[in-house]
Every structure is written in structure tokens, then in C-alpha cells.
Amino acid sequence: MNYTEKLENVSVLGAAGKMGSGILLLTALEMADLSMKPENKDKSFVLNAVDVSSEALIGLMKYIKSQVLKAAEKKVNQLRSFYANRHDLIENSEIINEYIHDVLLIIRPSTNLEVTYNSTLIFEAIKEDPDLKAKIFSQINQNSKHQPWFFTNTSSIPISELDKKAGLNGRVLGVHFYNPPAVQKLVEIIKAENTLPELHEFAVLFSKNLRKTVVPSHDFAGFIGNGHFMRDALYGIQQAEMLTKEYSFAQSVYMINKVSQDFLIRPMGIFQLIDYVGIDVCSYIMSVMNPYLPNEDLHSNLLDKMLELGVRGGQHSDGSQKDGFLKYEKGKPTAIYDINSKSYIEIASLQADCDTKLGNLPQSVKPWKAVVGKPMDEFYKTYFSELKGMKTMGAEIAVKYFLRSKAISEKLVADKVAFTDEDVNTVLKTGFFHAYGPINNYMN
User: Fold this and answer.
1) Per-residue pLDDT tens over the stretch 142-181
2) How confident is the model over 107-155, as pLDDT tens digits?
3) Could you tell me if residue 220 is left (phi over 0), alpha (psi between -120 and 50 degrees) or otherwise beta?
4) Which one, out of 15, 209, 308, 315, has a CA that is 20 to 30 A from the CA of 27?
5) Which of 3.40.50.300, 3.40.50.620, 3.90.1300.10, 3.40.50.720 would CATH assign to domain 3-217?
6) How many C-beta atoms surround the C-beta of residue 246 within 10 A?
7) CA quadruple 434, 436, 437, 439: dihedral positive or negative?
8) Can you tell me the distance from the alpha carbon of 432 to that of 224, in angstroms, rounded to the nearest whole number?
């Protein structure tokens, strides 16, 4: 079965979720483009969008329609060649509307898992629960008319565990898109020991056709992305907890968030990143990874406390940020949650005092937006050398944070989670939008 045949009947599980909807969109566009090639004119393409909520599927189709419109507007010249024989389509708007119609015809929303039994390829983006994933995989596998391939979007569960629990005999692969899949360029691909090579070959080709950057990871809980992020987050939490011996909780969170963003030249501070992913999601991922880490305790009592208080973070269905460690207005942090008073404290009321305690940034500093995506090695060497020589509170915290991030990354390579230093750097730069990779010589 070749590439096109494998994509003639596909299912996406968890299709209405934030990850599943993006995977569905990308797959629908790829299938639609394949269907328009002359050699495929007699083939039919079916993409099952499977979710437990009928209401969510209605919202999904509205989202897909709006996103296909944007995609069509960007490639209208290409679409003109696709529809060259359609003399009834003259205006760009007519061509765009026809393309939207053709893409939506491929998608079949359903709440019934049985529709997947005809699929040769299953994308899965459901809850990060190994038992649930394995149960569903097993049910599909036992009832399928084919021997389907399973591409799981898990960000933490070992692929070999899912393979064994579901009895898939190597027909499962980790294909970890980053959030949101329609925008993020990174895909981590994870083979289990018994994964059939043809799954990996297909996934790499599929990802490249979507113009994604592919990074391989060994099959170890958390892989590269969460392998770094969870430990980096736990370190930031621990540093804030240490500061609470001298400062208030809100002050401590503010200072570590500022250091991890401004001093380390990252797109957002560590507590803002935890909020973005979701406090509940971070806590759960740690719990999934922890049993595989006999020499570590990847757990945070602070995350537990926040969840007990009902503070979860994450995003609303429209993509806007929910309140977590920080309170957000129009996407920007405006206050910090205080676990003692169980209320948010305005950042404006503590910012000046905290900034004074942290001290100034190095004179050579440049904002993240000015350096991200650019070759700036000489700048980073100058900046971090200056930072290392400063004796302010903020600089000293930042230097330790920088070195901890590097140590985490180097251990991922040493433990054979990542294949190379560059793979770790690519994941952090592409998947987390860091301006520079953590494995570097900027403080040598």
C-alpha cells in the first residue's frame, strides 16, 4: 500500500480537541490535495473526525471551514491549476469556495468509534491516559477490516507500552505534533523497539509534506520536549518556593517568571508556560513520566495545591488563556495568584519593588523578538558573559537557571533520549520558540 492509498481512509480520534482539530485540519488539506491529482481522480478519500461530543464536532467543522478558507487564500494560484478544467470557476472567490467545499466533503464527523474500522491509518489525540489509549487501540485493532497503523500524539507515554498493552505488533508510532499543530513546525517522531519501519518512513514523508521539521526521539517517557520542559518547570517551581522564605508567594512567582523570560531571553516566563500548557496537564504528565524515572522525583506539591484550589490554567475553546499562576487580560499577565489569600494580586502593586530586588538586565540585552530565529551567537556570548559577571540577585538566579537547563539537555543526550545535541536544540527552538538552544558554549 503506497502513500496515497494509506491516506484514502483515515480517522482522527479526539478530533474536536485542540490537538486533534489541528491534526485533522492538516490531514484534510493533504488528502484534498492528493484527491485533486489527475492520477487519483477515481479514488475516494474519507477522513473520519471522531469525538465523544456531537456539540464539539459542530464547533470543529466551523473551525475547519474557517482555517481551510485561510489556507485557500494563501495558495489560490495553485488552486487555479487544480481546477484548470473547471470552466465554471472564474473568480478567485469561486475557486476558494469550491476548494472549501471539496475539503469539507472529505471529513465525516462521528461519535461512533465503529467508523474507524474501515481506516488504514488512525491518528490519536485523546486524553494522555495509557490505559484508555490502549483500550481504544485494541478495540479498533480487533474489529478492523485492515491492519491499521496507529499514530499517537502522546507527549509522554512510552510507545512500547502502548504497543504491548494494545497488542499491535509494531503497528504504532509516536507522532507528536506541537500545539497548535496547524502553526507549530515541530513534529517529534518516536519509534518503539518493535515499530515496523514502514510506519516511520510514512510518518517522515507525511510530516515533510506538511512542511514540518522532524526530530527523532528515543522511546523514553516524556521524550525530548517534555523531558526538558517538565524538569525545567520543576526547577523554576523549586526556585520560587525557595524565595518564599524571604518574599511573598506572589513576589516569588513574579521574580522567577521574569528571570526565566527576560534574563534568559525566552518568549514567556516559566509560570506563564505552565499556565499555557495547563497546570493540570503538567501535573499529569509528570505523573506519567515519574514511574520510569527511578532516580528522580518528578512531582510538585505546589501544582497539587493549585489544583486543589481549582486553579488549572490552560485555554478556553476559543484559544484564549485561562487564569493560572497568573491572571490574564487580553492575553497579557496582569496579576499573580497568592495561595495564602486565595486571590490574585495585581502585578503593578509589586513589580517595581521586585524589579529593584532583581537588579538591572545586562546592558547588552536584546528582547526575544529581536533575536529569535536569527544567527546571534556572538551576541549571546557577549550577553551571557556579561550576565555571568554581574552580582545582582536576578543575574545570579538566571545563571543558575541557564546552567540547569543546559544540564537537563545534556543528560537527555547522555541517557539516549535524544540522539544528538542538535536534536535537543531544535526541539527547544522550534517547539518552544526559544531563541537559542540550551546546549551551547555561551558561558564557557
Assistant:
1) 999 899 999 999 999 999 999 999 999 999 999 999 999 9
2) 999 999 999 999 999 999 999 999 999 999 999 999 998 999 999 999 9
3) beta
4) 315
5) 3.40.50.720
6) 9
7) negative
8) 12
